[in-house]
Amino acid sequence: MSPPPPASRGRPLASSREMLQDAAFELFLERGYAGTTVDHITQRVGVSRNTFFNYFPAKSDVFWVELDETLETLTAALHEASADVSPMTAVSDAVLACGRQFGPTRVPFALTQHALIGSVHELQASALIRFTRQAAIIRDFLLRRDIPYLHAQAGAYAVIVAGIAAAQSWGAAGTSRGELTPYLRAALSPIVAGYDALPKRSFDDGVHFAAVH
Amino acid sequence: MSPPPPASRGRPLASSREMLQDAAFELFLERGYAGTTVDHITQRVGVSRNTFFNYFPAKSDVFWVELDETLETLTAALHEASADVSPMTAVSDAVLACGRQFGPTRVPFALTQHALIGSVHELQASALIRFTRQAAIIRDFLLRRDIPYLHAQAGAYAVIVAGIAAAQSWGAAGTSRGELTPYLRAALSPIVAGYDALPKRSFDDGVHFAAVH
DNA sequence: AGGAATAATTGAACTCAGTCCAATAAGTAT
DNA sequence: ATACTTATTGGACTGAGTTCAATTATTCCT
Predict the structure, then answer these.
(1) Cβ contact A92:A159 at 8 Å
(2) How many Å from the CA of A52 to C1' of D3?
(3) In the structure, how far is the CA atom of residue A54 from the C1' atom of nucleotide C19, in angstroms?
(4) Model ipTM?
């Protein structure tokens, strides 16, 4: 996910991550994601196919680079959460904080092109990986705040999908889109409200839900 | 998705869908999903590799067969929804109706083995396909009930992920799992409550969200 | 009975992502 | 110089999924 640390010893990097990334995005625009092979990308940079995989674990990782940079800040945003607000409010605030990294001047490729995810297998798989990864981070946060497992898992999922729905609408809105934040607020509010209204321990009305993992 | 209609004309089917399916599940248990190739499956049935793809569009479709049968009933369940209850309650009821098709005596392979989804690319992709397909059905239902686009999309997503969280906990609970319904109820309730509490048209407090598609 | 139409099966060749491995090249530290 | 470290490379491989033309089994029509 993160760029390999520049080594002071050994053979220096001949091709940079950015070169591959730039070539890939050019080609994605020229021939579409599906019409671009890893060979195309490396040929444009003038490097062997295998070198691509030194920098990116998969072709699909290029698609997500911009988004991934932001997703990585979620953990930190959660750690800054105040203990005064409800768990789901804290999560929502963290997601909003991440969302503020986007705006009319910064729209990740993955958002403008999210329709691609519907048709390319690799993107579907890589999208789900990111989904579950972020959900696990939020779920664990909620578990630490004593939310029972089922609600922690479902709540984590729900917050993420609210973010996805917001990002999709925003990304699809074209040049008129403005800031992402109001979209996020609108999508998140019913979720947060629903969980905040939940009486403590209401989750097991007669049924015992075992924790998983 | 659905089995090819038995043709009255032309060469009759030599291998049945069930034979391939049974062989596949046997092999999934014997060697794991990833360790089973399409070749293995067709060799066990005594048929050529290409024949597999006459019956299933992809290897991953076998993984989901049992679940798919139930997912296909969602549209019908939504059509039976009463106009008296709130849109999200109607959706929740439909999901609960689908969920009642499972129980201790019927646990789909995809649920007991859901951990596989975390490690197999094809399963990730095929899981997301099913997720978006069901979400679109629910979203369109909510749109017909005059829910604005962003909330319809986010709400549809949220209901599905609540179902997923419930199904995961239930599937992971082992032989002590009992009925799926209480898990579903618990996971769905805060979502439904959150959306039901939403004042009409509160969604665009000053911002216009364009409909997409 | 003898085609013609229809549909399933098959084999073969192909594409492409991703993995593995051994060889080599290009640097740095001693 | 030499050893060590690390990047690059080529080659072979796996496995899912596609495409296509050829074959085979069956029904319908005459």
Answers:
(1) yes
(2) 29
(3) 12
(4) 0.92
